[in-house]
Structure formats: C-alpha cells, structure tokens
C-alpha cells in the first residue's frame, strides 16, 4: 500500500503507512476478542476465560476501576473451534480471577492486558444485568427439555457444540409488548445468533437473524400464554467461543 502513496497523494494513506512503520518498532500489543462468560456477578469472585491474540506470554491484567481485584491464573494457546476463524475468536487465552467488592456498583468492568510493555485496547466485561440473571442449564435441546425461565429475565448461555440448540419456555399472565434479544457478536462471541419465538402449539410466531451486527432481536406483542424461545447459530456452529446473553424483557 505504501508504494502507492506517490501516485495517490492520499493523506489518509500517508498517515496509515507512517503508523505501520512506527508500530513495527514496538512489540505487538495483546488483543482481546471475548470473555466467557460475558458477565460477572456483582459482589463476587468469578473466574473468566478471556480469548484473544498474543495472550500466551507473561501478561498483566489491569482495570481503571479502583479496588477491583484481577489475578491472572494462567495463559495458554487456545484451540480455534471447529468452523471458526481465528481472526474472529482468537488463538490464545488467559484465565482471569475477578473480585468485585460489595461497595462497588458497576454495569461494566473495562479490562486491558499488558505484555512486553504494550497494552491492549480495553474490553468491557458485563456486570449483573437489568433483569434477574440465571445461567443456562443443559440439556435444553428440545421443546420437551425446554428450560423454564421467568419474564423479565436474563440468561447467560453458550452454544457449546455444532448443531446445539438452546430452548427456553416462559409464561405470561397478561398481554405484554416483549423484546427478546441475543447479545453475542457485540461482545465478541463467535455466535451468529438465530432467534425464533414459538407459541404453546410449537408454531413459529416470528424469527430474527441479524438485528444488530449478527445479533438477533424480536419485538412483539404477546397475549397471555406459554411461549418457547429457540437460540441457535445461523451456520450451526458452536464451541467454547460461542457464549451469548439472552435478554427477555418488557
Ligand atoms: Ca447450550
Ligand atoms: Ca444472526
């Protein structure tokens, strides 16, 4: 690209090429792709696996929030899940222990990694949620095994293998305008979510693939009754880099 500067006279290209030359003098900074799980519980100590690039070396974790404890437990190479692109989900990982003391109230915790004097761009770990948070419980792969949840509710789950499908059920006692949303790619997940809402007779009401990036969102008015939510990957891929947060709200 730099060879073309003299013919293109692009100030943007000049700047980009000078930046590249400058950055070649320094060690490449670690980069963070995603954390599994995405979210931490407030007032707790949580182990989080952070995936990315250039993480398999002596590394320090930092945050700008005072009194939050960060401890690197280990750093290692990480397999790229089947069918995934290492450019998307990273090739190395850090197991991190995060302690949030009771006096700290946060919705997100920014973290960075420093290795060889170079610091990553910050990544935000979610903390808690707008609604009560529960974890996905497997097996929930069929309507018969659907995991009952409340509404409103947040579920932190994972499409843990290829062709895995996660099914949840909830009941409404009154008519409600509902928003059912998957947060995945926005937090760096490899999941390209596909979200489908079924009625009590297991007939499709509506579906959503890509509403924000590749994350899905359904907005619908529902009468009182029982409903099923199906979360899956649009390409039937799954693995350790496919976490998601399902937000069932009104
Ligand atoms: Ca699952
Ligand atoms: Ca999608």
Description:
With 250 residues, this protein is mainly β. The protein has two domains: 31-127, Immunoglobulins (Immunoglobulin-like, Sandwich), CATH 2.60.40.10; 133-249, Jelly Rolls (Sandwich), CATH 2.60.120.380. Helices cover 8% and strands 46% of the residues. It has helices at 5-8, 11-23, 86-89, and strands at 31-36, 39-40, 44-53, 60-63, 69-77, 92-100, 108-115, 118-119, 123-127, 133-135, 147-148, 153-158, 165-172, 176-183, 193-198, 204-208, 217-222, 225-233, 243-249. Strands 2, 4, 7, 8 and 9 form a five-stranded mixed sheet that branches. A five-stranded mixed sheet has the order 10-12-19-14-17, with no helix packed on it. Strand 15 and strand 16 (204-208) form a beta hairpin. The longest helix has 13 residues, at 11-23. The site of one calcium ion has 8 residues, from strand 15.
Radius of gyration of CA atoms, rounded to a whole number: 21 Å
- What order do the helices and strands follow? HHEEEEEHEEEEEEEEEEEEEE
What is the CATH architecture annotation of the largest domain? Sandwich
The helicity comes to under 10%
Question: What's the layout of helices and strands?
Answer:
Elements: H1 5-8, H2 11-23, E1 31-36, E2 39-40, E3 44-53, E4 60-63, E5 69-77, H3 86-89, E6 92-100, E7 108-115, E8 118-119, E9 123-127, E10 133-135, E11 147-148, E12 153-158, E13 165-172, E14 176-183, E15 193-198, E16 204-208, E17 217-222, E18 225-233, E19 243-249
Parallel strand pairs: 2-9, 10-12, 11-13
Antiparallel strand pairs: 1-3, 3-6, 4-7, 5-6, 7-8, 7-9, 12-19, 13-18, 14-17, 14-19, 15-16, 15-18
The chain binds calcium ion (CA) (2 copies).
